[in-house]
Design brief:
With 409 residues, the protein is α+β, with helices and mostly antiparallel strands. It contains ten helices and 23 strands. Helices cover 32% and strands 25% of the residues. The strands form six sheets. Strands 1, 2, 3, 6, 7, 8, 20, 21 and 22 form a nine-stranded mixed sheet that branches. Strands 9, 13, 15, 16 and 19 form a five-stranded antiparallel sheet that branches. The two termini are 14 Å apart.
């Protein structure tokens, strides 16, 4: 068996150029949320070229590639999201954001670290087994979903409610940034929208109206008090609360605004919930209304409207639950064992941000971890890049994880 793991490492190195080329092409193909069609086509073509047993796209535009097992083993799910954030100011970039430039041992460009580098490591990690002629007992499912960046798991939800619903999955592996460590979860995230309503008037005579912004101010001040009692998880960290957006309408000069909107980003730990967060905020608003009956502020979970690149539309609540997989979970133990057979020595950590793993874990009960060549420090920044040596190691790691979890036939 030791020889086999040496071969996996050798094959990963042999595919270095192919992986770099694939990442470059992915980076050179812009794929902001709801506009992933071209990158989905690129991934589909690569999977077909490499000879995966099944390659298809579901009605929402999620891409699936399958390396079929012989039967009798555990199935494993690999996942990355195809969408990326915008590139921002091009002047902030050392290399053009869609160049896919190779320099200093990195592939540079928007999405390289989130998660286009990991896509290549997952695809070629499984391809290594295929080229070695290794058949597994369980199936390996490579999945690439739409619309992760907005934050409500819409693409993953429809993959899970559709195709994945009928397939037992033993372990999920996300390509979200982990620097070759094993990540076990993250805090939850919900967005709460506050709306203050007043009466519009000319600002030269504000007493004739009711300023919606003025009535929002005491509510925001009172909500600051909630930060003093935030709960904390020993592994995932502390719950947080941040105001991320404030706007008013009509927003004209010389006009008292009749509507003020505020979005609150709330991160929460296991044992808390979006419903509980919303209830806390509503209690604070009610207390403010008792002091000032003219305060007319409501709070609800923010709703995001989606349209997939295939044309399907739906509204979704902005909530992503907290989750944590235990270190002694049998499949976590298998993952670490698999990586150690390659000479890797991963530590355990968690993401600061949220992932689609919250859906597979919380709604399907699939233990879902992260293992990736990408580094969190580069995500969403103008210095977006993926280390090529880590890319190669990650491909070998993914192959080894498949062997350990699915079993060799």
């Amino acid at each position: 068996m030791e020889k086999l793991y040496e071969q996996i490492t050798e094959y990963a190195e042999a595919f270095r150029e192919e992986m770099v080329s694939f990442v470059q092409r992915l980076v050179q193909t812009p794929s902001e949320s709801q506009h992933e069609e071209n990158v989905a086509k690129l991934i589909t073509e690569e999977l077909a070229k490499l000879g995966f047993d099944e390659v298809f796209t579901d009605p929402y535009g999620n891409v699936v590639g399958i390396y079929k097992g012989t039967g009798g083993g555990d199935n494993i799910l690999f996942n990355c999201h195809m969408d990326q954030v915008a590139s921002g100011n091009p002047d902030d970039w050392e290399y053009p954001p869609y160049s896919g430039a190779v320099a200093d041992g990195y592939i540079h460009g928007r999405g390289a670290s989130d998660t286009k580098g990991a896509m290549a490591a997952q695809v070629y990690g499984v391809y290594i087994l295929k080229k070695l002629g290794i058949r597994l007992k369980g199936d390996v499912l490579l999945t690439f979903v739409i619309d992760e960046e907005p934050g409500d798991m819409w693409g993953m939800k429809h993959l899970c409610e559709g195709y994945l619903k009928k397939i037992p999955i033993a372990l999920g592996v996300l390509g979200e940034s982990t620097s070759l460590d094993v990540y076990l979860g993250h805090r939850g995230r919900t967005e709460i929208e506050l709306i203050s309503r007043g009466v519009m008037s000319h600002s030269s005579a504000p007493w004739l109206g009711g300023n919606a912004v003025d009535k929002m101010v005491p509510v925001l001040a009172a909500l600051e008090e909630l930060k003093k009692d935030m709960k904390e998880d020993a592994f995932l960290g502390k719950s947080t609360q941040s105001v991320t957006h404030i706007s008013c309408t009509p927003g004209w000069g010389s006009t008292v605004p009749d509507v003020c909107r505020v979005w609150i980003d709330r991160r929460y730990i296991p044992g808390e919930s979006a419903e509980g967060v919303l209830a806390d905020i509503r209690r604070v608003i009610a207390a403010c209304k008792e002091k000032d009956p003219e305060i007319n502020v409501t709070a609800n979970m923010r709703v995001l409207s989606h349209t997939s690149y295939t044309g399907l539309k739906e509204d979704e609540n902005m909530d992503k639950p907290a989750y944590l997989v235990e270190q002694d979970n049998p499949y976590v133990v298998k993952t670490v064992a698999a990586l150690k057979k390659l000479g890797q020595n991963p530590g355990f950590d968690k993401w600061n941000f949220g992932t689609d793993g919250a859906y597979t874990f919380c709604y399907l009960g699939i233990p879902t971890i992260g293992y990736s060549c990408c580094e969190e420090i580069y995500t969403h920044r103008p210095k977006d890049r993926v280390n090529i040596d880590m890319l190669v190691k990650c491909a070998a790691g993914n192959a080894s994880i498949c062997l350990e979890v699915c079993g060799q036939a």
